[in-house]
Design a protein that fits this description.
Helix content: 10-25%
Mean pLDDT: 75
Order of helices and strands: HEEEEEEHEEEHEEHEE
Radius of gyration: 34 Å
Low-confidence stretches: 20-71
Largest sheet: 6 strands, mixed
CATH architecture of the domain at 154-260: Roll
Shape: elongated
CATH superfamily of the domain at 154-260: Outer membrane lipoprotein wza domain like
Strand order of the largest sheet: 9-8-12-10-11-13
Structural class: alpha+beta
Number of helices: 4
CATH topology of the domain at 154-260: Outer membrane lipoprotein wza fold like
Distance between the termini: 118 Å
Length: 261
């Protein structure tokens, strides 16, 4: 009788251990709406043991959109030019706050820090340049920069259009739209060979021929180029048999008549 009691008690303890193990295992699993089970590691400690993890989005450029024609970003960040006015504010040293104008040579004169070449820099790069210039005067300088005055982005349309001239580039604009803004094509226009001129540097200009006639006829503007500030569009009267991919700036006078502007 005593042996039977011990045996029954042993079975009861074994069953209790099995039930506890099942309960612990059940806490480590969750069932989603589709009936699939996933293991929860919320009870675990230590780095890298699992659990949900949020991955930050990879930062891109100005907008991450590339221009399939002529390359580059469709909306590049604004870069400083001569005559631009920038305002500099220091968090812990307001006595160094100043408003500066970019000189014709591309330099600005920083108070107590001297001349700094800023032409071609975007605002983030300009802020870095200012901080670097003041590290000899301030410990870990914290600076904020703001663009107060700047040259309005623009484009030029010349040749056989209704109103050739210089226009402000206020939004995303294509060559076809630029021609319409400039009064549309004249009857003498050779719109199968519209030329887009894009400045590469101070001495070189890139060119591209666009068949605007074909694009409009087929109602397909996927090859229509998006303009950048400083671009020039020329609609010829006669056929252009051949045009070099790159031209020097003085050679643009062959296409654009200064009296039009």
């Amino acid at each position: 009788m005593k042996r039977l009691f011990i045996f029954v008690r042993f079975i009861a303890v074994a069953l209790l251990i099995v039930d506890c193990g099942s309960a612990v295992f059940a806490q480590g699993e969750k069932t989603d709406l589709s009936g699939n089970k996933e293991t929860s590691r919320s009870g675990f400690t230590g780095a890298g043991t699992g659990g949900s993890r949020t991955t930050a989005a990879k930062p891109g450029g100005a907008d991450g959109l590339g221009n399939p024609l002529l390359g580059g970003e469709r909306h590049p960040l604004y870069r400083l030019r001569p005559s631009d006015v920038v305002e500099i504010s220091f968090t812990v040293a307001p006595e160094f706050n100043q408003t500066l104008t970019v000189q014709p040579d591309g330099y600005v004169m920083l108070k107590d820090a001297g001349m700094v070449d800023v032409q071609g820099l975007n605002l983030e790069e300009f802020s870095d340049a200012v901080q670097k210039a003041y590290r000899g005067y301030l410990h870990d300088p914290q600076v904020a920069v703001a663009l107060k005055e700047f040259e309005r982005p623009s484009f030029v349309v010349g040749g056989e259009v209704g109103k050739p001239g210089k226009y402000e580039l206020r939004s995303d604009t294509t060559v076809a739209e630029a021609v319409q803004i400039a009064g549309g094509l004249t009857q003498q226009a050779k719109h199968s060979q519209v030329v887009l001129f894009r400045r590469v540097n101070d001495d070189l200009v890139e060119t591209r021929l666009l068949n605007l006639k074909k694009m409009l006829k087929e109602s397909s503007l996927k090859e229509d180029a998006h303009l950048r500030p400083g671009d020039m569009v020329f609609v010829p009267q006669n056929s252009i048999s051949k045009i070099a991919r790159f031209l020097t700036k003085p050679s643009l006078s062959m296409y654009f008549n200064p009296t039009q502007f």
